[in-house]
Amino acid sequence: MSIILMIGTFDTKEEEFVYLRERLMACGHGVLSVNVGVMATSGQFPVEIDAAEIAQAAGADLHVLRGAGNRDRAMEVMCNGAAIVVQRLYQAGRFQAIIGMGGGGGTAIVTASMRELPYGVPKVCVSTVASGNVSGYVGIKDIVMIPSLTDLAGIHPISRMVIAQAAGAVCGMVEAELPLPSKGNAPVIAATMFGNTTACVQACACRLREQGYQVLIFHATGTGGKMMESLIEEGYIDAVLDLTTTEIADELCGGMMSAGPGRLSAAGRRGIPQVVAPGCLDMVNFGVRESIPVSRFKEGRVFYSWNPNNTLMRTSSEDNLLIGEQIALRLNASQGPVKVMLPLRGLSILGEEGQPFYDPQADGVLFSVMRNKLKPDIEIIEMDMAINESAFADKAVQLLLELIGNHNGS
Q1: Is the full-model pTM beyond 0.90?
Q2: pLDDT tens, 51-100?
Q3: What value, to the nearest 5°, has the Cα angle with vertex 76 and ends 108 and 61?
Q4: Alpha-helical runs (H) found in 127-277
Q5: Which domains occur in the chain, in start order?
C-alpha cells in the first residue's frame, strides 16, 4: 500500500474531496490529507495537515488571513506554505504520490506544491483550467492535468466520472513502481535538437551511445531548454552537447519558443563540459502566419511555413548582433570547459545554400560577434560545412569526449 497525498481547498470543495478520498482508499491506498483552504470546513473526513499549519509555514497566521479578507494575500501565503509543507512531507517519506483538485486559485496552490517535487513522483491535478494554456501551472515538471469538464461544484455524473478516473490514474502511476530518475553508472549527456538539426544531433547521440554514454535529447521548443537547464542544475547531467541554441533567438526576437534568460547558463554554473553551436539561430518561431506582429519588424523579412501552426522568421544581421553578444556573455561566465563550433555553411537545413534562409551576411555577423566577444580561453572551432553534415557531428563528439576526458582527469 502506498500513501497518496490529497491536497486542495477543502473549505470550498469538500464534497468533491470526500469522493476523491473514497476512490483512493477503494484502490487500496492510504490518504494523507492537506487542506489549503483558508475558511473553515465541516470536517467530513480526517485532515492530517490543516490550513493553519500551511499558513504558519509561510510565516502567516490563519486567523489574521481570515479576518483580512485579502484574497491575493491569502493566495500568496497558501501557495508558499503548501510548497514548503509538501516538500517537507515528501523528504520525510510521508507519501509516494500526490493528487489535487481546484479552480483557478486552487489549481495555483496545488501545482505550486507539485512543482517542488522530484521528477517521477506521480502528480495529478483535476482542474477547471486544464483545457487552456497550463504552462504557468505545470512549469517544467511532470504534472498530469485533467480537465474537470464542469465546474467543481458538487458530485454529479460528470464530476463523479472525472474524479474516479483521476483517482485511478494516480493509483495506477504509483502502483507501477517504476524507479525514480537517477544517473545510474553511465555518464549522462544532454543534447538539444530541433527538426532543422535532427540529422546532426541524432548522429552525435548514436556515436556517444556507442561509447557508453546515456544521451538525453531535449527538443528546443522553450520548454525543452528550460527542462534541460533544470536537470543540469539538479546534477543529473555530466556534460552538454548544446548544438541547437535557437531558443535564444526566440527570447531576444519575441518568438514563442523562448526558454527565458536562464538558457545557456546552468552548465556554466555547474562547471561541466559543454560543446556549443549556433544551431537554428537563423530562425525565430511564431504561430500561424497571421499571428506574427509584422509591425515590429522591418520590411523584407523572410518567412517560412514549417507546418500549419508554426511559421519561422529568418533572423537578420541586427538580430544576430544581439544574439551573438548574449551567447558570448553567458558562455563567458562559465566555470567549466567550453568549446564553440561554428558551421560556416549553414546553421540549419533551411540555412544551407539554395534554401530559403540562406544568408551568409547575417550568419557572418553572428560569427564575427562570437569571435570578438568570447573570452580567449573558449576555443572556437570553425567548420567549413553545414551543421547537418556528418563530419560536423563527428567533430562535435570528438570535442566533447576530449573535454570530458580532460575534466575527469583534472
Answers
A1: no
A2: 999 999 999 999 999 988 888 999 999 999 999 999 999 999 999 999 99
A3: 125
A4: 135-138, 157-175, 198-210, 223-233, 247-253, 266-270
A5: 3-175 (3.40.50.12020), 188-409 (3.40.50.12030)
